[in-house]
Amino acid sequence: MTFYTGILLKRCMEADPSIRSYLDIAERAFGMKGRIIVMIIMNSELYLVAIGLLILEGDNLHKLFPKFMIKLGELTANGRQSFVLITALVIFPSMLLTDLSILSYVSATGVFSCLIILVSIFCVGLFNSVGFHEKGTLLNVKSLPTAVSLYIVCFAGHPVIPSIYTSMRNTYQFSKVLLFSFVLTTSTYLAMATVGYLMYGDSVESQITLSLPTSKVCAEVAIYTTLLIPITRYALMVTPVATAIEGGLSENYKNQRTIRLLIRVGLLISTVIVAYVFPYYESLMAIVGSIFVVSASFLLPCLCYLKINSDLRWGWNCEQMGILGILVFGTLAGVLGTYSSVYDLVT
């Protein structure tokens, strides 16, 4: 479904050559209000993912150093919380950069990082007495909405599809590139899910690295590789949010370096506070999937396509029924996933 909605975004761009970004598509379909709504959705998703990166880093560092804590007088920060604070200090210098081209190259190694993590975890099961013989419940209907929300998070990224399309030398190959990307990512997710389930069954943690034995070399490779991801990606995630805030300032403040730095530091502090008091990675990602990814990757591409191509005649053809099916699925997944995630959190 998300592959097909990616194709719909491409068709929206073909309908109007002046479209250069996801925001342009929203504005072309629904005017300035549509652009503002989509901008809020995109930046909210990035902000929450940045919080998730801090939680991810704190959890995995705590896995490696379970007895570590920070004590300042009467104030005490336990392992996870103290590592969130330390991670923020490590990330802080990157937040002072206005040109993130260097970090973008480092972040581009994410594909290789995922493959290293997958191979390392497979080696843990193969060579470190963990094995692939665990079992669990085949179908847990109660947790299905949350699970679907987590699956949906895996296929986020539609807001960057128009930028990729416009940057291609041969745009006619876009569909093939998109198909290859989805096949590669889906295969990687499927392999990781299968290996993790066979190794740990229902007892697997929300982050599989938290289930690994830290005394094994292969496990340490997986964990340390995971630790690199938040540090290299955090600033790239938060920068679009900071840029959007700067865009709302008056001309007197918009281009002042001090104001730009204060905005970035403020975003870092706010995400640290949320990660400090809300250390629930699985619930956070499920909420991101059920609200923001459902909107950006399922609903909005279909709605924008239908609006831009409003001269289409409705009938019982496969394409229109497929679009209707995606809209229905996205709506149900969003409502049920959000309810299930919030309910699990408060109970």
Bin the helical content.
over 70%
Name the average pLDDT.
Answer: 88
Return Rg in Å: 21 Å
Number of H/I helices? 13
Order of helices and strands: HHEEHHHHHHHHHHH
How many distinct beta strands? Answer: 2
Residue fraction in strands:
under 5%
Task: Give the oligomeric state.
Answer: single chain
Low-confidence stretches: none
Query: What's the shape?
Result: globular
**CA-CA gap between termini:** 32 Å
Q: Within the largest sheet, what's the order of strands?
A: 1-2
Structural class: mainly alpha
Please summarize the sheet with the most strands. 2 strands, antiparallel
Keywords: Amino-acid transport, Membrane, Transmembrane, Transmembrane helix, Transport
Domain Amino acid transporter transmembrane: 2-341
InterPro entries: AA_transpt_TM
Main location: membrane
Put the structure in a nutshell:
The protein is an all-alpha fold and 347 residues long. Helices cover 74% and strands 2% of the residues.
Task: Explain how this protein is built.
By secondary structure, this protein is mostly helical. Helices cover 74% and strands 2% of the residues. The chain has 13 helices and two strands; from the N terminus they run ααββααααααααααα. The chain has helices at 2-15, 22-64, 79-95, 101-107, 110-127, 144-153, 161-167, 174-200, 217-247, 251-254, 257-277, 281-308, 318-346, and strands spanning 70-72, 75-77. The protein has a two-stranded antiparallel sheet. The two termini are 32 Å apart. The model has no long low-confidence stretch (mean pLDDT 88).
